[in-house]
Amino acid sequence: MPRGDPTTPGQESRQDLTRTIKEEALRLGFQKVGVVPSSAIQARRENLAGWIRSGFAGRLKYMEQFFERQSRLLAGLPDLRSIVVLAVPYGGGPLEERVPPETPGGRVARYAKGRDYHRVIRKRMKELESFVRAQAGEPTRTLCSIDTAPVQERVLAEMAGLGFIGKNSCLILPRGGSFVFLAAILTNLDLEPDRPVPWDCGACTLCLEACPTQALVRPYELDARRCISYLTIEMKEAIDPALRPLMGDWIFGCDICQQVCPYNRKTTEDHSWEEFQPETGAGARLPLEEILTCRSEEAFTGRFAGTPLMRSKRVGLLRNAAVVAGNLEDPRHIPALAAALLEEPTPIVRQHAAWALGRISTQEAIEALQTALHRETDPAVRQEIESALRAALKT
Ligand code: SF4
Ligand code: SF4
Predict the structure, then answer these.
(1) Which residue CA neighbors atom 2 of ligand 1 most closely?
(2) pLDDT tens for residues 322-334?
């Protein structure tokens, strides 16, 4: 039966087209797919605006400009009608680390162990996009977003029936857990919308209790400024000394509030794409010596190109490695920390290396701090060395 204008099909064609697109998405490996009308893009704007106003977004510049960017996006898509929302699994299955817990090193959040998800997902989304265009014909328009367009993917995913937003602020698939990336295809096609699912957290508060930095200030409300993911990835400045001891061995990101979630604990199957397996990227744990002695941008890029760890940049990752070394209090890290304190050109890394030596506080660590104090000229680093020495001499 001819469809006529494919962007406004009849009811039956609309259902057929929507079903065909969903089947193709699942065939391509997307774990869940749903559709919302374009009006959903404006949903819960007040919640987001309130969150930004409260300062909880920290220095996330792209969040401050969110609404301005969204207005520009909508002005450029005057005939936007539907949004196809997709979930991509990256780490379900047993929660035990593949690497034995006694392996020293900094822990990497599950989503970041493999290849960079933007590139990986974009490749399959492009396939889906071509399929949609081929199915619907002209004048179909589509725009793919993987964290790239100013839309609230989690809100769209909830409205599209993929799952529900948990008290830890993550989108949770009732039968798949929360270790999923979200992506969206914005289109001028009129597709059949889905309905939200009737699931929620109930009386559970495990994630709020487990968060080591109390970043989940209340259910559904995350203070990004205290969140280890923000501190280790997005924040470029020195980390508040009061938060450093709470960061444990997380060198890039944090999974704690997802690990404790019953919806993840009962998910035993691992549907994650092979590009997100630890073997394909940075891995589950990073040896601290290797990171702390990485002095050049070339070496850093050579090691981490094509992985999410590029986002923290070399300086951020060395800073995080120093915090982890300080928290592990393992004297074996002293030579690498001492070398970073003397040789690293970036003051922020020297600051954190000094803090870590103060935490380890053996005679060797104290001597490394004293040697550095004689040579150091940067006031912020000198201050950090002096405070590390005070801490070390007290113990
Ligand atoms: S990611 Fe870690 S620090 Fe951030 S809210 Fe969850 S448990 Fe807390
Ligand atoms: S841990 Fe409990 S409260 Fe937190 S997101 Fe999971 S179900 Fe909801």
Answers:
(1) 254
(2) 999 999 999 999 9
